[in-house]
Amino acid sequence: MGENQDFAVSLQDSKAAYVLSNVAEVVERILTFVPTKSLLRIASVCRLWRNCARRVLRTQQQLTWVSACGPSNTEVHALCSILAEEVEKVFLLPNTVLAMVDCEAFTGQAYCYRESKAKKSRHSPDTVEELNLLFPKGCDIMGIATPGIVLTPSGSCSGPPQEYQEGEAGFAIMFPTMEGVHIKPFHFCKKSISPTALKEAGLVDNPDLRVVLMFVYEAYKSGGARFLTQILEPLAKSKALIAGGLVESVFSPPRHCCSQGAYGVVGLALSGPKVQGASVLLDQDVSNPKAAEATIRRLKAAKIPERNTLGFMFACVGRGQNYYNNQTNVEADAFHKVFPNTPLFGLFGNGEIGCDRIIKDDYTLCDTDTDSLQHEYTTVMTLVHLG
């Protein structure tokens, strides 16, 4: 009886081995349940598994993100402390990463290395290098530090977003390669900006440009305002949606042409037929929850699909809890009420970039001057759809 059982088990094992070595449909189905990092390791087993893994990777085009709020129990920022673990669980191959952290916890605090006990800022080359090592080689990582953070908790598109004007918080949005969507990062300072550079970045003379997310750092320095005008002037004449803000600093990509403390801008140019965008401006007159919800509801006119759509909130540090008579999370809650299945991310910064715009194939934008893209004490609420 024991020999018969052993034979039956052996026969079943041989059948399973045959299926897993020869039947691509079964292997491919199984691999859809495997996180990307494990999938890349599995791809080295044999040719069949490699081909199946590649096909699975091509179908994984759903946006994902990791969010964290502190205080961190480790030496590094709360986002950095969980990112390594969470990246192991994602079901996509990141091609572009947009990370934001609060500038107080990321650059203002010092900590001790266990070995040397030497004081070192959390905004250190080691931290940035560790961040780069988490993602595939060639992945573009944009890291921004800003006075406040808006994030949706990890795990669910329908989770309620939270505003963090104080305390440790951050997020990392991971964009895969997507059909019909081209995401091109850009980084300019006073030495590298030129009409040619803007064209190479896809910001001018690009009929497929749909959305530009941009973040200006050290803008208060002498010459910063003129520099910002150089960027916004050509963009204001385009039919693209422009949204972003003035932030504290940028920790990735590293600077190569300008010294620390010089002003500059980083951003993402989103082009392609499957990209859609819309934004509304909550101006200084919007000062209660009902008015905030009514303004955000105007985004419904864009009729943007829910799938693969992100919300971005770029708010002034002067808004938030104090602006709404000590009511917390007013604008994030209003967005969630109107768009309950769309994750919201963003920042509280030192100035806002954007205006009321809806980008559709059949929508003609009126010309706007540069000044109308720059604001104070406002919030730019934006939807971006990526196919």
TrEMBL record:
PANTHER family: F-BOX ONLY PROTEIN 22
Domain FIST C-domain: start-end pairs: 224-356
Coiled coil start-end: none
Xref: InterPro entries: F-box-like_dom_sf, F-box_dom, FIST_C, FIST_domain_N
GO biological process: positive regulation of proteasomal ubiquitin-dependent protein catabolic process; protein polyubiquitination; regulation of skeletal muscle fiber development
Pfam families, sorted: F-box, FIST, FIST_C
Domain of life of the organism encoding this protein: Eukaryota
Record's protein name: F-box protein 22
